[in-house]
C-alpha cells in the first residue's frame, strides 16, 4: 500500500471537494508537515516558505496572482486553477453591477437609510427624494466586453437576453470560446473601439504584463459621458488614478468593481464590492471539485489539466509503471531521458512530451519496475526540474 500523501489546506475549501481525496490515500489539513501538495484560495503564498516536498499547488479559483508561479515553474511544480468554475457567479454579479449603476441603487439605499423612522411624513420625503435617483433601463444599451473567455461569453449571452446590444474584443479568443459566443455579439477591433461605443464596458481578462493598466489615463477619456466601467477581473487591470480623474472631470459616470481600496472608497462615483465575484456556495463548490480532481489526477497519474505554467498532458494508462518528468524546454531532453531508460534495460511502452514556454513535461510508461538508481540518473540530467515515479498499486 502506498504511503498517504499530505495535502496542506491554506483556506476554507468546500467539503464536497475535499471529500474527493480518499482518506486511505491522502492526509488533508491545515497543519500537514511535508505536504505533497497545497490547496489554496486567497491566501498570499509569495512570502511563504513552500516546502521542498510540494509537488503541486491547486488554486480553487481562476486567478493565481497570490501564488509564486515563476518560482514554482523553476522547481517543476505545476500550479492548477479552476477556469470557468465560478463563471456563472461572476456573470450574475456583473449584471448586478450594471443594474446598481443604471438604477442608482447604492445612493438610493443610502438615502432611505438616512431617513428618520420617526419623521411625521415619511411618504412625502420619499416621493420628494426619489427624484434624485431616476435611472435608465439596460434594454437597448450597448455593453462592451473585453475578454471573451467563459465569463465574458456568459455575460454576453445574459446581456443579449436582457435586450442589450453587445460588442466584444479579445485578440486571443480560443476556438471553444468562439463557439460559445452568441452570434449577435459584434466584433470590436480594439479596446479603444469598445471604450468609444459602449455605455457599459466590462473587463474579463487575467492580470498579466499586457493587461496591467489596460484602462488608463491615455484611453479612459474615450468613454462616453455617463458611461459605466465594470471591473470584476483584477484590480490592476484598471488604473485607479485615471478612474478618479475621469469621474472628477465627468468623462465617465460610474466605476463598478470588486476591489475596494483606500484610493477609491467613499468616492460617490464608485461602487466597490468586497471581492464577491466567486462568493457563492455553488462557485466555491465547483472550484473545489474541479481543482481537487485535477490535483488527484496529477499526483496519481501525472496528467496535467488547467495548469497555468505547464502544458496540458494526458496519457491513458497502458502500464503499471509510469515516470513523470518536468524539465527546461531545451533541445535533446527527450533523447537523454530515453537513452537513460534504455541503458537501464527499460522498454518504453508509451510516451508523450509537450512544452509550454520555458517548461516541458514528459510522461513515460515502461514495461517493468523503475529503480531508484534510474530515477536518480534522470534527475541528474542538466535541465531536469522534477522527477516522479507513479506506479499503480
Overview in brief:
By secondary structure, this protein is an alpha/beta fold. The protein has twelve helices and 16 strands.
Annotated CATH architecture of the largest domain:
3-Layer(aba) Sandwich
Low-confidence stretches: none
- How much is the radius of gyration in Å? 25 Å
* CATH-derived topology of the largest domain: Rossmann fold
Q: Mean of residue pLDDT?
A: 95
| Quaternary structure classification | single chain
Indicate the overall shape: elongated
Helix content percent band: 25-40%
Largest sheet: 7 strands, parallel
Topology as a string of helices (H) and strands (E): EHEEEHEHHHEHEHEHEEHEEHEHEEHE
Can you characterise this structure?
By secondary structure, the protein is of the alpha/beta class. The protein folds into 3 domains: 1-86 and 281-310, NAD(P)-binding Rossmann-like Domain (Rossmann fold); 87-272, NAD(P)-binding Rossmann-like Domain (Rossmann fold, 3-Layer(aba) Sandwich); 311-393, Alpha-Beta Plaits, CATH 3.30.70. It contains 12 helices and 16 strands. Strands 8-7-6-9-10-11-12 form a 7-stranded parallel sheet, sandwiched between helices. Strands 2-1-3-4-5 form a 5-stranded parallel sheet. Strands 14-15-13-16 form a 4-stranded antiparallel sheet, with helices on one face. It is elongated, with a radius of gyration of 25 Å. The mean pLDDT is 95.
